[in-house]
Amino acid sequence: MEQRHRAAILMGVSAAAFLGPFTQTVYAPSLVEIGHYFQVSQLAVNWTISGWVLVLAVAGFIVGPLADRFGRRAVLLTGLVIFTIGSLLCLVAQRYGWFLAGRMVAALGISACVTMAAVVIGDIYAPDERTDAMSVYQLLAFLGPVAGPVVGGVFASYLPWQWIFALLTVLSIVVLIGNARILPETRPAAAAAQGTGMQGLGRLLRSRPAWALFLLGFTQLYAYYAFLVHLPVLLHDQPLSTAEKGLAFLPLTVGLLVGVRLSRWLVGRWHRTLVVNGAASGLAVAVLALAGLLAINALPLPLLLLFMLLFGLLLGSNLPPQMAILVNLFSAEKGAAVGAHASIRFTGGALGPVVSALIGRHFGNSAVIGALGIVLLIVAVLVWRWLEDPYERPGTV
Predict the structure, then answer these.
(1) Residues 237-254: what's their mean pLDDT?
(2) Residues 12 and 122 in one domain
(3) Other C-beta atoms within 10 Å of 354: how many?
(4) If we measure between CA atoms, which residue out of 43, 53, 49 comes closest to residue 27?
(5) Same domain assignment for residues 231 and 324
């Protein structure tokens, strides 16, 4: 396959994956208006976000094996069609029940896009090229939650909230047409020979290296969402306006985006496993240090912002080599492996805000961060012991 064709496929599947986090956040500025429109409580409206994450947490276990059974192209395009139908339901809904149903349908469809992007990249790129390609995909994926509130805020300022879902419908159709034109079937013959694909899921669930990546994905996305909801609590006593508190999230976002691109440079010099192990350990140490500073009330604002930047850098640099190692380990079961990884990661993302809030309510802020640091450290130790990459040569770095 020509390099130009591979690059076009990479951008096509990455655009499909971008729709997931973008859709999750683009209507956030209109949540109050949506509640008023349907005459429901804010809790009911929030379920359209929580339910979205829950669907993603379950769907990966289904979508991945289906891709190994029926092919990547069929699953991705079907997912985009389902996502389009869900967005249309949200657009035309006159009752809250239909709006919630549209969100769940859209989440089911987008789960195929999030999973298939990494799977297709694993199919068309050689092992030594995968981290670079994964960094492009991860960069676009992280741009989704950054662009979502900005675009949604502009729409909310000038148009009724329904226009947001009109935009999502149009974007999904454009991405669907683009992928239908450029994406061939990339599933290797070995994956087709695995039968139902559920056999592959069973094999990877018995693999220690797979569980190293699953635990890492779960705890890191748990930590990311826990910090997203806990940062305003940490900023509560700072002499900042609401707008300035919003800008305090910027170092985390910048760190993530720079970290994803930094992974290309790191993997060019060290093994993927070394990059993942080093970043995971660094993340645990940084979080434990933050907990210690909180415990002694010695956390000035500049130091907190510096930590958020470091947190983003370590997390962002970790993700592309994680995904590259995963598809290296399971070349015949990429769909099942990436789908299971996505499901477990999203479960961590769903639990992060809830569990951290419960710990904070009963034990305080330092306990939230301290417990998180201990868990990250335990997982980092397990990853050092369990993680391997079949394409790395022993005795080199």
Answers:
(1) 68
(2) yes
(3) 13
(4) 49
(5) yes
In a domain, 289, yes or no: yes
**Helix 42-70 with 198-205: angle, nearest 10 deg:** 100
Q: In sequence order, what are the residues at sequence separation of 6 or more whose Cβ sits closer than 8 angstroms to the Cβ of residue 179?
A: 12, 13, 16, 76, 77, 80
Place of tokens 């900023």: 235
Burial level of 98, CB count in 10 A (0-12/13-18/19+)?
A: middle
What is the total count of domains within the chain?
2
* 216 contacts 314 by C-beta, under 8 angstroms: no
Residues 133-162 have a mean pLDDT of 83
Say if pTM beats, i.e. exceeds, 0.70. yes
| CATH number for 165 | 1.20.1250.20
Would you state the structure tokens that stand for residue 292, as one six-digit string? Answer: 């210690």
Q: Is it the case that residue 292 has pLDDT exceeding 50?
A: yes
Selection from 198, 26, 215, 8 nearest residue 110 by Cα: 26
Residue 110's pLDDT is 92
Residues 256, 290 within the same domain: yes
Same domain, 377 and 272: yes
